[in-house]
Amino acid sequence: MSTVQEVARREAIAQYRVVGVPPEPDLEGLVQLAARVCGVSTAVINIIDDRLQHQIAAVGVQASVCSREDSMCAVVFREPGHIVVSDAREDDRFAQNPFVTGEIAAVRFYASSPLITPEGIPIGTLCVFDEQPGELSPEDSRALALLAHQVVDVLELRRITRELGQSNEQLENFASQVSHDLRNPLTAIAGFIELAADSPELANAPQAARALARAESAAARMDSMIADLLAYARLGGLQPRRDEVGLDDVVRAVLDDLDSALAAAGATVSVDAAVEVIGDETLLRVLIQNLVANAVKFSSAAGVQPQVDVRAHGLTGGWRITVDDNGPGVPAEQRERVFELMERGTAQEVPGLGIGLSTCRRIVEAHGGRIGIDASPAGGASVWIVLPDSVD
Fold first, then answer.
1. Which of 106, 112, 68 minimizes the C-alpha distance to 89?
2. In the prediction, which pLDDT does 166 show?
3. Residue limits of the Histidine kinase domain (predicted)?
4. What residues contact 78, with CB distance under 8 A and at least 6 apart?
5. CB–CB of 94/75 below 8 Å?
6. CA 359 → CA 78, 282, 342, 343, 356, distances in Å?
7. Domain 3-163 in CATH: superfamily?
8. What integer is the mean pLDDT of 17-44?
9. pLDDT single digits (tens) 108-121
10. Within 13 Å of residue 140, how many CA atoms lie on the same side as its CB?
């Protein structure tokens, strides 16, 4: 590639902010689905810069970094396209590659589809491989290409969200784009999960069956979240349902959705939230998920093993919920400012969109409640929420 193309690619990669950070749960779900659909042991999302190949999500191997010279994907990356290789030992492009010869691995079957940005810039691949020779059916090959497109969609939606301004008009425009760009891929992914779940092979693979059941449940919850949040953005405000909600069940569902991210960070989460609150279950799940994910992310960035404590108890006329962590905390002078849209305080080096706490505040206020931050007994941040049992 020319120097101009390399510069454009480096800039595109930098905008996505996925290199050198814990794997995103959405990306991990896509590699798991790719491996299942293609019937192989391993799938990886690679981001390839001018020197290195970064595995930003993987199943079947531990995500790692290797030199671009050693990468199999970098070989085909010079002319990006959809590639299927039955036996890499018999392909001149790969026969001497260390991932094939046994120096690093013993790859035989290999297939990849490029990750191309909307501007036409190749930034990496979604690849699947196995230590046994193999083939892909035309249907599975198309599925791999579709999933590669979904990887870029996820990256793009994160980038677009991060770049949103504060105006309601921008939020409304974003809602329209999300309706098309997120709901449609989610429908496709749910379809692949359903196809995989119907496979007779699952009768002898209980672990895979459980993983697919969890993926199907997560897709359904995501669809519900998207529906409510799109309505929220379009209306410029929330009108939450007023249902009895078991908060402990909400927290457990959140921990299930965040399972991969929690495991990758070595995080432990303790829960004491056996209360029934009045509110909108979907929005409360978004609220808790944002707070737990934030706690883990910032604690990890501070170099500590994350310990998160979620608690709730009744008050006269309502409930108090706290999410404590052992991370760096939030300086007192920033504890109000971090709730503003696109505001991240002094933590600019920590990947994120800068809208999580703003979303949390809007959800809490829509329920007639209040949210704030104190110092945690564990030394980090303690986000507290007070929800009333009725909205005036």
1. 106
2. 44
3. 177-391
4. 1
5. yes
6. 41, 13, 10, 12, 5
7. GAF domain (3.30.450.40)
8. 89
9. 999 999 999 988 88
10. 19
Let me know: does 275 contact 312? Beta carbons within 8 Å: yes
The span from the CA of 254 to the CA of 290, in Å, is 9
pLDDT of residue 259: 86
Residue 323's beta-bridge partner residues? Answer: 310, 383
* pLDDT computed for residue 264 by the predictor: 87
The answer to whether 110 and 72 are in contact (CB under 8 A) is: yes
- Identify which of 288, 259, 258 has the alpha carbon closest to the alpha carbon of residue 273: 288
Question: What is the rounded CA–CA span in Å between residue 112 and residue 44?
Answer: 9
Q: Of 261, 296, 224, 373, which is closest to residue 26 (Cα–Cα)?
A: 261
| Residue at 173: amino acid letter | N
Do the bridges between strand 307-315 and strand 268-272 make them parallel or antiparallel, or are there none, so unpaired? parallel
The burial class, CB within 10 Å (0-12 / 13-18 / 19+), for 47 is buried
Q: Please check the confidence at residue 182 and state whether its pLDDT lies above 70.
A: no
In angstroms, the Cα distances linking 160 to 153, 167, 298 are 10, 14, 22
The distance of Cα 331 from the centroid of its chain, to the nearest Å, equals 28
Q: In what order do the strands lie in the sheet with 109-116?
A: 65-67, 52-59, 42-48, 122-130, 109-116, 83-85
CATH topology agreement for domains 3-163 and 243-388: no
- pLDDT of 224 reads 60
Per DSSP, the three-state class of 371 is strand
CATH of domain 243-388: 3.30.565.10
Going from the C-alpha of 254 to that of each of 59, 92, 136, 221, 316, the distances in angstroms are 21, 47, 35, 10, 27
Q: What is the per-residue pLDDT across 223-246, written as a single tens digit (0 to 9) for each? A: 666 665 565 555 455 578 889 999
HEC assignment per residue over 267-296: CEEEEECCCEEEECHHHHHHHHHHHHHHHH
The DSSP result for 17-71, as a single string, is --TTSPPPHHHHHHHHHHHHHHT-SEEEEEEE-SSEEEEEEEESS---EEEGGG-
